[in-house]
Design a protein that fits this description.
six-stranded parallel sheet, 2 domains, 333 residues, 43% helix, globular, L-2-Hydroxyisocaproate Dehydrogenase, Chain A, domain 2
Length: 333
């Protein structure tokens, strides 16, 4: 058997983690024969709940799960980890300004970035899920200067999967028959779900999504707003935020980092914008189409961008620039 890898999940007593931990522990993410040590970090008041989660993981009797370590201490949580899934963040409370939310999260991700810098392996792969995910990811990376910027990404795979599923349902095919949708920009309601480069397999023939759907008004209207607003729609219906679908997206994202993307396919991920060919400001974590090989992502360059797409890509970039500048002000205080 291989050496165990150490995987950290933060916000581990929360509902996304509850949907996520079983999939990781049974081998859906890092492989069926890869032993795992799971480290679960949460705040001190959540430790009793965490003990319950540990009991349940033990009771699953999973062969590759070698150890589960619950903790509220960063020096324990981040020690020698191979992968960090940062789910925990300050949620937006009623009446809270976005600025207040940013300030609270800058403090959290500055601490966690510092802990990554000090305790984690330099090869650690870091996925930020807690919102505002793009900016939280940027702050964590800036607070961990000894870890390569390329090792940080944020989750836009949930948006990507939502877009895929909408196209598949519209075409009456299963979602694995749709590929190369793109989420550009921020994991917020300004994100741009783009199907100009997507393909749908219709009865064995690969068809451009616009040709397959034959409804440009829907693709430029309701399709985009449905994907942008889906998180809010789930909260309205469930009175809780997306957990099952978020956990599935986290698994997809991390599995693709570990094992790579399929030939001729790309996925969406929030990554450093430096050196991109789409004129997106450099010092941002921005969602791009990426291909992954040997645990290294590369932005898919040179896709033709029409005026409609350009405007939407720029709008979400502008929001990210504003978020970044506000967050960096707090970081320097």
């Amino acid at each position: 058997m291989a050496e165990p890898i150490r995987v950290l999940v933060t916000g581990a007593a929360g509902q996304i983690a509850y949907s996520l931990l079983y999939s990781i522990a049974k081998g859906d993410v890092f492989g069926k024969d890869q032993p795992i040590i799971l480290i679960l970090l949460d705040i001190p008041p959540m430790l009793p709940v965490l003990d319950g989660v540990v009991m349940e993981l033990q009771d699953c009797a999973l062969p590759i799960l070698k150890e589960v370590i619950p903790t509220d201490k960063v020096e324990v949580a981040f020690k020698d980890i191979d992968a960090a899934i940062l789910v925990g963040s300050m949620p937006r409370k009623e009446g809270m300004e976005r600025k207040d939310l940013l300030k609270a999260n800058v403090a959290i991700f500055k601490t966690q970035g510092g802990a990554l810098d000090k305790y984690a392996k330099k090869t650690v792969k870091v996925l930020v899920v807690g919102n505002p995910a793009n900016t939280n990811c940027l702050i964590a990376s800036k607070s961990a200067p000894s870890i390569p910027k390329e090792n940080f990404s944020c989750l836009t795979r949930l948006d990507h999967n939502r877009a895929c599923s909408q196209v598949a349902m519209r075409c009456g095919v299963s979602s694995d028959q749709v590929k190369n949708v793109i989420i550009w920009g921020n994991h917020s309601s300004t994100q741009y779900p783009d199907v100009h480069h997507a393909k749908v397999n219709l009865q064995g023939a690969e068809t451009e999504a616009y040709q397959a759907i034959k409804d440009d008004a829907w693709l430029r209207g309701d399709f985009i707003s449905t994907v942008q607003q889906r998180g809010a729609a789930v909260i309205k219906a469930r009175k809780l935020s997306s957990a099952m679908s978020a956990a599935k997206a986290i698994c997809d994202h991390m599995r693709d980092i570990w094992f790579g993307t399929k030939e001729g396919e790309f996925v969406s991920m929030g990554v450093y914008a430096s050196g991109n060919s789409y004129n997106i400001p450099e010092d941002l974590i921005y969602s791009f189409p990426v291909q992954i090989k040997n645990k290294t992502w590369k932005v898919v360059d040179g896709l033709p961008i029409n005026d409609f797409s350009r405007a939407k890509m720029d709008a979400t970039a502008a929001e990210l620039v504003e978020e970044r500048d506000t967050a960096l002000d707090f970081l320097s205080q």
